[in-house]
Amino acid sequence: MRWFGLFLLACSSDPQPHPGADTAAAALPPGCGDGVVDADEVCDAGPANSDTIADACRSTCFPASCGDAVVDAGEGCDDGAGLGGDGCSSACALETGTLDTESNDTWEEATPVLTTDGAGQAHGSLADQDVDCWSVEVPACGAIEATELAPCGPALTLALHAPDGSLVASGAPGDDGCATLDPLTAPGARWVEGGTWSVCVSAVNKSDVDDYVLAISTPDPKAIGAPTSGSDTDADTIPDTCDADLDGDGMANDADNCPEVSNGPDTPAPALSSSGYIRHWLSAGPFTGGVTTAECRPSEQAFVGEDGPLAPAVADPAGDLVWTYALLSADSYDFTVPYGWATPSRESYTLVYLQSATARELTLSLGADDGVFAWWNGTQVLDVGSCQGVNADQFQASVAVNEGWNSLLVKVRDWGGGWGQAVRFLDAGVAVTDLVPSLSPDGAWTADQGDHDGDGLGDVCDPEP
Fold first, then answer.
1. Which of 218, 263, 345, 464 has the smallest number of Cβ neighbours within 10 A?
2. Where are the domains of the chain?
3. What are the percentages of helix, strand and coil residues in the chain, rounded to 5?
4. What is the pLDDT of residues 256-285, one digit of tens each?
5. For the structural domain made of 280-445, what CATH number should be given?
6. pTM > 0.85: yes or no
7. Which residues pair with 212 in a beta bridge?
8. Do 383 and 418 meet the contact criterion of CB atoms below 8 Å apart?
9. 109 in helix, strand or coil?
């Protein structure tokens, strides 16, 4: 009986559930998922940890975050890729605009950027020394602007390619670390030919770039105050290649009979230069074969009838030639420009009508290459036979200026080399600027669309009007 009792005692040592008693859950081992936030954990919700539920503590015992492939609070998307350019940025924001489409590593493969009113955004990422190229349609005489939007990561460089693929401009990071291609500072990005232009993006140090956003636009260069590139006849900051009114006279090129010489409705009335020099002339020449008493002294031959009353207008006969307009952009008149080379000796005539508000005594002051005759109101006042270049104010004569209209005729003989003149009036050594020049014997004159010979070329630019 004792042995049996011992046997029963041994068996009864194994705990048995009591009918109606609670059944305890199995205890979890210590670590992530035990519901206790340990030192190496940020969160631990135990069985509630989840890798698929928004905002849950993840199975790694770290909080939900961008890049875990679950769209949590404050996220617009989360594809788990951690890279931009695929519609979801590395910051888990939805990307609106044009997305990175490989292969777009060259200007020829550039991804077209969707634009509204000439502006759009491109989203991309760079890995393994990748290059992304984006294209945009640019109107003729337009501009291209490209700016990396903040926040900006590793330094980028921007390369602008023309429609033929040539590299014409580049952009680099500014003080804020964001790359910029600015048409105000990059001549190749403004006043461009029309067509498909490409901007290629690469990392400066060939580093990986998780994502970037590039804003691309095609602004009007004039609207943004872009400086000119190339020649600009009317100095209006619009290059001639893009200027519908080359001379700025208010007459469109295709309707202007002198598109490079101002003769339209906006042409200002003629005036002396700020230094008093005469820049508007009737001109006749070149004349050769004149007989002189000295090598450089003008001849006595009256080629244009200066030995009698003389009041010509444009296209009137000047001996065997005709009077033409000479509208200068400089204070001196270089006769080799309109006449080219003529065998020395050679002679030219210039004439201008000048209006004065008052009667007064002034000094006719000029430089000439070489000898010079001058007539004021039909009377000769200068006779210079020396040889020299054009030296301002070298030769002078006192003249009586009438109130109203007066006339000045100048004859210059050249013995070789340079050939020209510079003419103005002085009053007690001070340049006179209030005389009003005219190229008509009938009074005030302004360049217009006149075409005496009807050849379609306006008188102001016609060498034979």
1. 464
2. 98-217, 280-445
3. 5, 30, 60
4. 999 999 999 999 999 999 999 999 999 999
5. 2.60.120
6. no
7. 124
8. no
9. helix
